[in-house]
């Protein structure tokens, strides 16, 4: 059975079609440098096939959320949910055949990869009776299936690459048809790209990418130069769902637009240098005292599951509800923040997690309490979290005022262990054992703790004393106090 949609037109004016039924069985790879029209092509494909097949869009740049209103796609804000919630949402998407856009623009690259991997993994693991046909469109696929290791951890890269490989290699039997778009073939993992049978190649300039594109299109190397001359929105297509021979296609118009800002040239304002100087410094407010607008309040996971279950309503679920309360007054913010830091510090393994992941968790907790987290940036969060691990949840705690004064110049990585020692000394409590210091320092190595103590002593921050019975105490010279002896 053939189910064609019109994707654009050939140079002579003839329509160029994509057979959706064939595409579900053979997958699609789109390549083109930035500005070549990849997103426009994907948008055309999604709009024309919206009434024919379920669609799942992995959107790292929030380009496709505008599909929600006219086509009833549900927008899932990936930054608002934890891993188990994302997996549960994906399972419901599969079960109820909801068309969704997973917006990942609020996450760092590593978090984007983990979120997409969990979402795709849950869809892939759906029960056999839910293997309905679905187009799974992944924009900027080189992010989720990189050809080489980058700045992300090896574990994250393996998870993301495995999810993308499953989508492209084994997804067909489960009804999942991968449509992946990349700026550069050289940056995309070969085992992911190799599984596509349909290709739409846009403008690209690097020789290595032109050569690979020409190979995939079955063109001779000397013909690859024409790929460099393609205009924006023009592609060369090949594959069982498009054409048995390479065909040039100009992508047709679309009904929706990107949420990104336009980069068209606009006239500069006719303003004198003196006026510009005044404008730049008008109503000057220091960043550390400026009140910021509240973060968007995430939709509760259960509410989003209900949205997916009743798929078809024209609702964008990543917007805060109307009439949502403003952040708490200033006198209520600090107690609430102290409570959040206390909760995070009490969780097992929290000190072993990367600071960026912890900060993301902190931001979500703030939004759940309808607080703004913008006045605490990542560096400030590191210090507050180190304080919380040592039992200091409020930076204005009068009891710890002197301790915090002494610790003001200490680096973030040493702050937690030093504060743990200093507060114990201030209270006259026994010296914290190596296990307690290791938890605050984020290590399981006794050797690292010994080196840490030596380093703090060489810096003059502590003085270690061991009595004849082998009991150790630690003094804080700047405070004039010492811990009680402990074995």
Fold and architecture overview:
- The chain is of the alpha/beta class.
- The protein folds into two domains: 4-258, P-loop containing nucleotide triphosphate hydrolases (Rossmann fold), CATH 3.40.50.300; 330-482, no CATH class.
- The protein is 40% helix and 15% strand.
- It is built from 19 helices and 14 strands.
- The strands form two sheets. An eleven-stranded mixed β-sheet has the order 2-1-11-10-9-3-8-7-4-6-5.
- Helix 4 (83-96) links the parallel strand 5 and strand 6.
- Helix 4 (83-96) packs across helix 5 (109-124), helix 13 (330-346) packs across helix 14 and helix 18 packs across helix 19.
- The longest helix has 17 residues, at 154-170.
- The protein is elongated.
- The N and C termini lie far apart (79 Å).
- Residues 286-293 and 313-322 have low confidence and may be disordered.
- One of its GO terms (molecular function) is ATP binding.
- Residues 13-68 form the Helicase HerA central domain.
> How would you classify the helix and strand content by structural class?
alpha/beta
CATH topology of the largest domain, anyone? Rossmann fold
Strand order of the largest sheet: 2-1-11-10-9-3-8-7-4-6-5
Regions with little confidence, pLDDT below 50 for 5+ residues: 286-293, 313-322
How much of the sequence lies in strands comes to 5-15%
Measured between the Cα atoms of the first and last residue, the distance is: 79 Å
Overall mean pLDDT? 83
CATH architecture of the largest domain: 3-Layer(aba) Sandwich
What's the CATH C level of the largest domain? Alpha Beta
Kindly state the number of beta strands: 14
Shape label: elongated
Treating each run of at least 4 consecutive H or I residues as one helix, how many helices? 19
Overall number of structural domains: 2
CATH superfamily of the largest domain, by name, is P-loop containing nucleotide triphosphate hydrolases
Task: Determine Rg (CA atoms, Å).
Answer: 28 Å
Helix content: 40-55%
